[in-house]
Amino acid sequence: MAKPRDEKLTIPEVIEEIGVPRSTFYRWRQLRKGPRAIKLPNGSVRIRRSELDRWMETLEESA
């Protein structure tokens, strides 16, 4: 069985999912505190679903 391709999310999709303002997300990118991203030759940015999930897991606090 073929492995499903890792979905590539746009910045609007990511900020809607995590619920932060666009400016906050861009500040995190500038400070290198956000999820790793792919910058396409046309300047568009995509974030792999697996990278967003991994990044979110790193933010979880242990109880």
Give the number of helices.
3
Helical proportion, percent range: 40-55%
User: What is the structural class?
Assistant: alpha+beta
Shape: globular
Which blocks of ≥5 consecutive residues have pLDDT under 50?
A: none
Radius of gyration: 13 Å
Written as H for each helix and E for each strand, in order along the chain, the element string is EHHEEH
Largest β-sheet summary: 3 strands, antiparallel
Gap between N and C termini, in Å?
Answer: 38 Å
Number of strands: 3
Task: Kindly report the spatial arrangement of strands forming the biggest sheet.
Answer: 1-3-2
Give the rounded overall mean pLDDT. Answer: 91
Strand % is 5-15%
Summarize the structure.
The mean pLDDT is 91. Strand 2 (38-39) and strand 3 form a beta hairpin.
Task: Write up this protein.
Helix content is 44%, strand content 14%. It is an alpha+beta fold.
Walk me through the topology.
Elements (H helix, E strand, L loop, with lengths): L7 E3 H8 L3 H9 L7 E2 L5 E4 H11 L4
Antiparallel strand pairs: 1-3, 2-3
Any key phrases for this structure?
single chain, 63 residues, alpha+beta, three-stranded antiparallel sheet, 3 helices, 3 strands
